[in-house]
Design brief:
Structural class: alpha+beta
Radius of gyration: 32 Å
Subcellular location: Bacterial flagellum basal body
Family: Belongs to the FlgI family.
Number of strands: 22
Protein name: Flagellar P-ring protein
Subunit structure: The basal body constitutes a major portion of the flagellar organelle and consists of four rings (L,P,S, and M) mounted on a central rod.
Strand order of the largest sheet: 3-4-5-10-7-6
Number of helices: 7
Main location: other
Number of domains: 3
């Protein structure tokens, strides 16, 4: 049996080498149904800040949390007017990976809730983290790592990054395990990260070629553009079978799509985007208004007044206006055609939208 599996891997290696440029592993574009992360959330306090924490008057929940914490430690501050600025109320979030055993350490993100200006140098106190069902699955504690900073003076403020959010590597310890078991009846389902009919068929074909060469049976069937059903061979564990087929190489497919981010001027064009030959004219109109005020001052010993005389100059320039032919059966040809007209990203966005309206752009436009 091992010899047949070795032969199957050799055949798939030859097939993968022929498509090495565009092929990816099945494990990188799919996931096993039911094997997923779970979100955890908690509320806690960060202490040790250098006067950059919450003001207890503007964030009363911080003061209430501080009093409750000190009460549990035997310190009575109920009738004391707290004025500290070294404490901040935060929300603590984390992703609990599948099959995480008790005692496993996971990363957490700490985000300020009040008016704290920075969490730099702070330490998160012991915080319980719960799931959607309200049960506690982890506890978090540790020093908060902040990449941003904020500095201010009397007349200027400098801020870089986000100093009110931080990260604690391995800051939480798993205390309760989530029941995540591989199916034992032989039925498995692979879910595609990017659903596509062609990709699902290619995944099923690649698995069937491997299983036929190694186990003399077909084990995969595409059910939808989002799912591929697997029937593991007898005598092979689910974990072992998933590990084997996860290394198989396939060439994923995707619909032709143009993604536009108008805020940053970013345009991403997919490989299969095609434009039917069209003629495009692109022109720009620049209007320049120049104000040069002049001061008119009266002669000495006169009774006149000093006045400011406005002087305005308006100049209009219209550039471009020539016609270029754009069209391409490949991404390189399309990019070359857009570069020929010398347009900037905002103009390219307008051109692509106009070409789509004319019916010459054979792709979907996604505007973010």
């Amino acid at each position: 049996m091992r010899f047949f599996r070795a032969c199957a891997l050799a055949v798939m290696a030859v097939f993968a080498f022929a498509h090495a440029e565009a092929a990816v592993r099945i494990k990188d574009i799919t996931s096993v149904k039911g094997v997923r992360d779970n979100q955890l959330v908690g509320y806690g306090l960060v202490v040790g800040l250098q006067g950059t924490g919450d003001s207890l008057q503007n964030a009363p929940f911080t003061g209430q949390s501080l009093q409750a914490m000190l009460d549990r430690m035997g310190v009575n501050v109920r009738n004391v007017n707290l004025r500290t600025r070294n404490v901040a109320a935060v929300m603590v979030t984390a992703d609990l990976p599948p099959f995480a055993a008790r005692g496993t350490h996971i990363d957490v993100t700490v985000s300020s809730m009040g008016d704290a200006s920075s969490l730099m140098g702070g330490t998160l106190l012991l915080t319980t983290m719960s799931g959607a069902n309200g049960q506690v699955y982890a506890v978090a504690q540790g020093a908060v790592s902040v990449t941003g900073f904020a500095t201010q003076g009397q007349a200027e403020t400098l801020t870089q990054g986000v100093p009110t959010a931080g990260h604690i590597s391995n800051g939480a310890t798993v205390e309760r395990e989530i029941a995540s078991r591989m199916p034992s009846d032989g039925a498995l389902n692979l879910e595609l990260n990017n659903p596509d009919f062609a990709t699902a068929v290619r995944i099923a074909d690649a698995i069937n070629r491997y299983s036929w060469a190694g186990y003399h049976r077909r084990t995969a069937l595409e059910q939808s553009p989002n799912s591929v059903a697997l029937h593991r061979p007898p005598g092979v564990g689910a974990t072992h079978f998933i590990a084997e087929i996860g290394e198989l190489m396939v060439e994923p497919d995707a619909p032709a799509r143009v993604v536009i981010d108008s805020r940053t001027g970013t345009v991403v064009i997919g490989l299969d985007v095609q434009i039917s030959p069209v003629a495009v004219t692109q022109g720009t109109l620049t209007v320049r208004v120049t104000e040069t005020p002049q001061v008119s001052q009266p002669a000495p010993f006169s009774h006149g007044r000093t006045v400011v005389t406005p002087q305005t100059q308006i100049q209009a320039d219209e550039g471009g206006g020539w016609v270029a032919v754009i069209g391409g059966r490949s991404l390189r040809g399309l990019v070359h055609g857009l570069n020929r007209i010398g347009a900037k990203p905002p103009t390219i966005i307008a051109i692509l939208q106009a070409i789509k309206a004319a019916g010459a752009l054979q792709a979907d436009i996604v505007v973010q």
